[in-house]
Amino acid sequence: MIQSIDYAAIAPPLILAVAAIGLLLADAFDAPRRVLSLLSGGSLAVALLAVIALATGDRRATFCVPDGLRGDGPRSCSYVADDFTLLFQGIVLGAAVVVVLLSLQEITDSKMPVGEYHFLLLAAVIGALALVAARDLVLLLVALETLSLPVFALSALRRYDGTASEAALKLFLVSVVSTAVMLFGISLVYGATGAMHLDRIAPALSRLPSDLDPVATAGSVLVLAGFAFKVAAVPFHFWAPDVYQGSPLPVAAFLSVVSKAAGFAGLAIVLALGLPAYAHVWGPTIAVIAALTMTVGNLVALRQRTAIRLLAWSSVAQSGYMLAPLAVGDDRLPEAVAATTAYVALYAVMNLGAFAVVIGFRRRDAPLSPSWDTLDDYRGLARRSPAVAAALAFFLICLAGLPPGVMGLFAKVVVFRATVAGDVTWLAVVMAINTVIGLYYYLLWAVRLFTPAPGPSYDPVPGLPVRAAVIATSTAALVLSAAPQIVLQTVSHAT
Amino acid sequence: MMAIPLAGALAMLVPANRFLRTDVAVRMFGTAVSGATLLVAISAMTAFDFGATSRMQMRVDRAWAPAIGLRFHLGVDGISLPLVVLTALLTFLCFLYTLRHPPGGGRIRLLTALLLVLEIGMIGTFVALDLVLFFVFFETVLIPMYAVIMLWGGTGRRAAAHKFILYTLLGSGLLLAGMLLVGAHAGTLDMTELAARHGSGLSHGLQVTAFALMGLGFAVKAPMWPLHTWLPDAHTEAPTVGSVLLAGVLLKMGTYGLVRVALPLAPDGAQFWAPWLGLLAVIGIVYGALACLAQRDLKRMIAYSSVGHMGFVLLGIATLTPVGVNAALFGNIAHGLITSLLFFLAGSVKERWGTADMNALGGGMLGTSPRLASILTFASVASLGLPGLAGFWGEMLALLGAYRPHADLPRETFVTFMAVAALGAVLTAAYFLRMLSKLTHGPSDGTAPERAPAAAVSVQEYAAWVPLIALTLLVGLWPKTLLDVTTGPVRALFGGG
After folding, report:
1. Of B65, B117, B170, which is closest to A433 when you measure between CB atoms?
2. Measured between alpha carbons, how far is B333 from B489 in angstroms, rounded to an integer?
3. Cα–Cα distance between A235 and A225 in angstroms, integer?
4. Is residue A117 part of a domain?
5. Nearest CA distance, B173 vs chain A (angstrom)
6. What is this structure's pTM?
7. Can you give the residue range of the structural domain that contains B158?
8. Averaged pLDDT for residues B253-258
């Protein structure tokens, strides 16, 4: 059986795969550090260009079931590059470029092996790209694992550091458990429907004999588990703060943006394409998870004293907002998916920006010691470097969702709208209360930037790449604040 | 039209690093910009067709984010026009006042920027005709006001500023949920279109929920009785200009929102909740008055008096009759004029004698600084509702409206409300007279007898106060000037001619 492969459709992950292997080889032959970094960042940029080129063309699909085996079913394809996929691939690649920029200084400071770092990063990005394009459960699972495995290693790359190893172990255990649960769910769904492709599962579920109903119900809920881990939703969120704190900061940025975006894309794909028939089951489940996630995340974030842990818990809380629209079930589902997508895209910009400033600001006097910046260390930043402080304050206000951070406000408006339109008003009220809690800690942090420093202060001199990352993200944030329709339009077009 | 000077103000502020080196120049600049805005507002008033007040005029309508049906839709009618002019006027007067009396804490440049952003938010709220746009402007005022309290406030500013922003943000969140609930089910976010439908096509239960959410949101801002606790702190700690804008305009955004958004969008819900709204309004009136009697701090007392006055405004809205809503809008303007004047005066008192504690100030101000004392007397008397001054009509009409509420509302309840509210009006008189007798009359016995070198009233202070005094008199003596403007749209609001 010969299958024709549409290489154009899989170009983005393919480019990265080639680059990753090249990187590994080059590292073995002791290529200079600069070449490796350039190769890694360059291949991501090229992949991004490929995505843009694909976006101008039509929908492409490959790895389809051959005609002879299809029967009278739909033209099931495992890998589909439609507008939704390309949009998410664009988000993932754009964010990955910023992460690479952020990593350059960190690799030197933390004495991490350059070649391995970039190779693992690229491998994880390949997983993310495949995940957002996957349209059958097996490929979804494999892609999810491809995304997860390199990240375990990445977070443990500071080999001398005990907290890093602990973080990696924790990440590994939670991930394995959630994958196992998800795999069980997949097997139940497969057992009930006899199909792996989402476009076959959906019709099979809608005309399922009633004795199989409990099986499919349990299966569809368990499938959620794997994604709940990826997006750090309660109760699979425990890894987030420790891992963010223990792993190198750029890896934390990667986890909180790239990996999360891919997780949400996968969740939306599975729910909207595969399981719409069981919306009455997963809708309320997600509503409860979303409410819990945002409340727990926000409440715990209130108590945090270090910047990175605060960002970790706040990104847990933000996951709650992103989950909320999906709680509507199949009532106005496309609108809800659009809302989640828009929030993910806007969140990627603002959260990366906040991470960029935090990384640039990090204490460098003792690079090998596991010290984290407390919020009080940010006092007086406005005096020393007003532009950086203004950028961080802007990102925080965006995350809180208030003008002048119009971008964050619109993200919230879109999510509220979708939630309310789907008649889940109680969730909207929970969300309203949560935005207040969220505002409190973001604001406390932002205010600290402008209060005078109590003691001797040090002057962080971020390197050129980090500065470029800060400038890029803040420009994007400003542009999107003035013209949010750029994202909203694209998203509603794509979903 | 309205947006041009505002955008200009914003644009001129961004590169403020290089030009306008001295503080004085910055203050002059702020005055000039806000003056220009005022001129545009006044020219808008002259261009306004007073023959058709219920029609939206001077509309700007452009698509902003079509993906979510968001339009950049602005316009004024008889309800919003007076508030727009009031906002422009008060901001201008604040800058005028700052010209000579900058608040302690420096950083005038930042203050100017924040006040202008505040102005944009306030005017934008009053002219926005799209629900989401309204919300954006509604939120825009939060951060600048927070910063104004935080940076230039009194001793307890941290707590006050946090309380302010958290309370109001909670309100905004619920407001957003309510507005989107209506928007999503009606399929449009355009306020004129939604108002024209009078809630048709929305189920009763939905309207009740939506009005509850929106009402809560606006009630925090207004503020209504159990949700008012942020207000005294914020007012007391804020610098003079902050208090003036807070009392003069920000509170109006709550009541304006109720009239403009909540009432027309969910009329059934309004009918369901009106008795409760009335009850809380009346409690607010009496509670505010009683709290005032117990205050020693001048600013805090004025702040509590705002709770009472906004209670009258809310009572007017709760009657759901044209008379009542007219009274509410009238009360809005009157309260904006008078309370701003009172806060200006309190600021001057505090600046001269370093305290706003009434016991420490002692009496006899009429003897030591007669002009200041006379104006204070005037403002207090206007505030307690002396016939012939602005405060009177708002309260009177609100009571009248409560006597004859909307046909579907329980009349006995509202007549009781009216009686209690009238009692509250008497209490209002009591605390203002107490304040006056403490401060202006009697021998100068307090701990501040050495107040002799108190500065005379400066030109800038006169400039800031005289327009307010004049308008208070004008609106008080010829209430028709204002009522004529608002009556048309209010009638249209209730679907009658």
Report:
1. B170
2. 16
3. 9
4. yes
5. 4
6. 0.85
7. 3-493
8. 86
